[in-house]
Design brief:
By secondary structure, the protein is of the alpha/beta class. It is built from 19 helices and eleven strands.
């Protein structure tokens, strides 16, 4: 069994629910999370660790006919449960009813992967499962786990009151990318003498997504140059096509306009008016809201302390990999089409220092969030202010954080510690205190790559 990283809380929760299903009555678990984050590996691990107590069945809902899927699932039942399943069964309703009948006298876990695909195979399965689950739940001991990678569909299936499976889940677990500590531990296993630059590159490109890290590590890509070279290995490389293949499933036919918006945001934190000007599209408020609230792909950034309705808003792409993909793969699609991957690699290499500087800010913000020491973490900015000479100036503080105890910290983030200017940060803090945290003693500090594991 290969080494399994982190997921301690999620595994603990799954085992608790599984035991409740075995000792009380059946439980229904919904597992969500972006594609490649490790949902299938997590449940596989659960079934491996608990198979002595009770068997686990794996059903993958691919885009095949219902009868083909049912034949595959039936064979899994015969093998894992040792039960007779008639060859004549060809519908999921029949198979699910038979499976729940077995659940009256046996304890087992069923993992149905890519559950949302039933919408393409036979959407009526959702109603069938709802009806059968309501009938059999109290008299069976089955732990049913379903997972899905298409956020839009999983939300619709389980959170829309008009849908048959609304409210049927006993627990929903959203699997997130690996924490910064786990990313460090993985890199350390593959390269014990890793540098801060290596660690930042792994974070910048993968954002902690399990599959992306696995690909890079298994191919010996433990430094910036090797990572970028692997990403650009060919026009058909995994990383080149990944962003498009994931997001087209999410967005459907509307992907063109959403891609244009995301492509612009990937060039930097920008305002809605700047996006509209750059793309030539008007009144993007609706699309921006969908990207933020329905898909969770972008988020608003306001200066810390600004009111919720404040118009001082910037947008950023939340997912590091999508930031990377739109910055390079989407923007330079013409080079990929021409198979000029060397040119793309050169562009990435030349731009990497600038691009990873933004990622370094996100790294520190993420570390602070994971520490659970803070009640607020953000940035602060103000345009058109006055500097110490009375001239017009813009003020921006990379990270402002308020601890649970009410203490305030202000950080200037630089890749190179020598570029940190404490006097300039003091000027910015003085300006910020004209609007926020008046009378507070604010701790001021510079952060660089040397501090990546200290904070």
């Amino acid at each position: 069994m290969k080494k399994f990283y982190d997921r301690i809380q999620e595994m603990t929760r799954l085992k608790e629910i599984q035991q409740q299903a075995y000792e009380d009555c059946s439980r229904f678990v919904v597992l969500t999370g972006r594609r490649r984050v490790g949902k299938t590996s997590l449940v596989y691990r659960l079934m491996q660790e608990t198979e002595i107590e009770a068997p686990g069945l794996y059903f993958f809902v691919g885009r095949k006919t219902e009868s083909v899927l049912v034949r595959t699932f039936a064979e899994e039942i015969r093998t894992k449960l040792g039960e007779f399943v008639p060859e004549a069964i060809s519908s999921m309703r029949e198979l699910m009813q038979l499976l729940l009948e077995f659940g009256k006298r046996k304890r087992f876990t069923v993992f149905m992967d890519e559950f949302q695909e039933w919408d393409n195979v036979n959407a009526g399965v959702f109603s069938d499962i709802q009806e059968l689950w309501d009938k059999y739940k109290k008299e069976t001991n089955v732990c049913l786990i379903v997972s899905g990678s298409i956020f839009r569909m999983m939300e619709k299936i389980f959170k829309d009151e008009a849908q048959p499976l609304f409210g049927r889940d006993d627990c929903t677990i959203r699997l997130m990318p690996f924490s910064t500590n786990t990313i460090r531990d993985i890199l350390s296993d593959y390269k014990p003498n890793y540098t801060s630059e290596d660690l930042l590159a792994l974070w910048t490109i993968t954002g902690g997504v399990a599959r992306y890290i696995e690909l890079l590590m298994n191919n010996g890509c433990t430094d910036v140059q090797k990572m970028l070279h692997y990403v650009c290995s060919s026009g058909d490389s995994f990383f080149v096509n990944e962003g498009k293949s994931i997001l087209i499933q999410e967005f459907g036919k509307q992907y063109g306009s959403y891609f244009s918006i995301l492509g612009q945001i990937a060039r930097g934190d920008v305002t809605q008016s700047e996006i509209e000007a750059a793309t030539g599209m008007k009144s993007l408020g609706g699309q921006m809201k969908v990207l933020e609230e329905n898909y969770g792909i972008i988020r608003k950034k306001r200066p810390i302390g600004a009111k919720e309705g404040s118009q001082t808003v910037r947008f950023e792409i939340q997912d590091n990999f999508f930031r990377f993909w739109f910055r390079y793969m989407y923007r330079y699609a013409a080079l990929i089409e021409l198979q000029n991957m060397q040119a793309l690699e050169n562009i990435m290499t030349e731009d990497y220092t600038n691009f990873s500087g933004i990622a370094l800010e996100r790294w520190f913000s993420q570390r602070m969030m994971e520490s659970c020491r803070y009640q607020r973490i953000g940035g602060w900015w103000k345009t058109g202010g006055k500097n110490s000479n009375g001239n017009s100036d813009d003020f921006e503080i990379d990270i402002v954080a308020e601890t649970i105890g009410g203490e305030v910290e202000a950080y200037e983030v630089k890749r190179n510690a020598q570029k940190y200017n404490p006097n300039r940060l003091t000027e910015k803090v003085v300006e910020m205190q004209r609007h926020n945290f008046k009378g507070k003693n604010i701790q001021k500090q510079g952060l660089s790559m040397d501090d990546m594991e200290r904070i």
